[in-house]
Specification:
Number of helices: 7
Structural class: mainly alpha
Distance between the termini: 103 Å
Strand content: under 5%
Helix content: over 70%
Shape: rod-shaped
Number of domains: 2
Radius of gyration: 42 Å
Order of helices and strands: HHHHHHH
Oligomer: single chain
Number of strands: 0
């Protein structure tokens, strides 16, 4: 004689197999008796049926129809030239940013030196006088 635990396990196997395969008449009768006798198995059957129907009717995750074509096109198209062209473009981009920053810095340096000086000589504007380091260090900044 089977123990209760083995009977429950066998009944649970029958329950889950009944969703995917046809049971023999004897197995169906055994499952029906088990479902009538146990509220737990009836709830489990209802829960599994709800989950299966939700999965069957739900939207399946996936990609857009043209996904594979877009990926293949991106892989196959050239990457914009050879390595030297890309290196040149990178250096040009970096240099242009540095050139703009340097120009702005020189402009502010020019304005600052004009503000400090009394006349607009080239030496004074570019801070290229014959001053010594000590004199330069003693210049008031503001």
């Amino acid at each position: 004689m089977e123990t209760k635990q083995k009977q429950r396990k066998a009944l649970r196997k029958l329950l889950y197999r009944s969703f995917d395969a046809d049971l023999t008449p004897e197995e169906s009768a055994r499952l029906d008796r088990g479902l009538k006798a146990s509220e737990t198995f009836r709830r489990e059957k209802d829960t599994v049926e709800k989950i299966r129907s939700a999965l069957a009717t739900g939207k399946r995750p996936g990609f857009k129809p043209d996904f594979s074509e877009r990926v293949l096109h991106r892989i196959q198209k050239p990457a914009g030239g050879n390595g030297l062209d890309q290196l040149y473009r990178s250096f040009r981009q970096v240099f242009s940013r540095l050139a703009v920053a340097g120009t702005v810095l020189l402009f502010f340096l020019l304005l600052y030196n004009i503000h400090l000086g009394d006349n607009l000589s080239t030496e004074e504007v570019l801070f290229a006088s014959d001053s010594t380091v000590q004199e330069i260090m003693n210049v008031p900044l503001f």
